[in-house]
Amino acid sequence: MKGDQLEVSLLRAEGHADNDFLKNVEPVVILKYACTQHRVSCVSYAPTVSGTYPWWNQFFYFDVITPHIAELTMKLYDN
Question: Pfam families attached here (predicted)?
């Protein structure tokens, strides 16, 4: 955390199922903070063909609106 911003490090995902039989998995992460701020990240590298262990190594910054009441959610989707 620096100043009035929240820093989020998106590193990697492990253990999600590869349910796509016809094409490679293209993982996307959507981050939502305090119900108002959104960030989207497409996979930067998937070391396996199926994409079951993708990694991003990205940093995201969110403005802290109310330091005591806030929720960060991260959802992983197949693009």
Answer: C2
Distance of alpha carbon 22 from the chain centroid: 24
CA pair distance 50, 18, nearest whole angstrom: 6
Tell me the pTM. Answer: 0.69
- Where do we find the tokens 């620096």? 2
Residue 76 is given by DSSP the state: E
Q: What 3-state class would DSSP assign to 8?
A: strand
Confidence at 9, pLDDT banded by 50, 70, 90? very high
Burial letters 34-55, b for 16+ CB under 10 A, else e: eeebebeeebeebeeeebbebb
Q: Which structural domains are found in the chain, ordered by start?
A: 5-78 (2.60.40.150)
Express the helix, strand and coil content of the chain in percent, nearest 5 each: 0, 50, 50
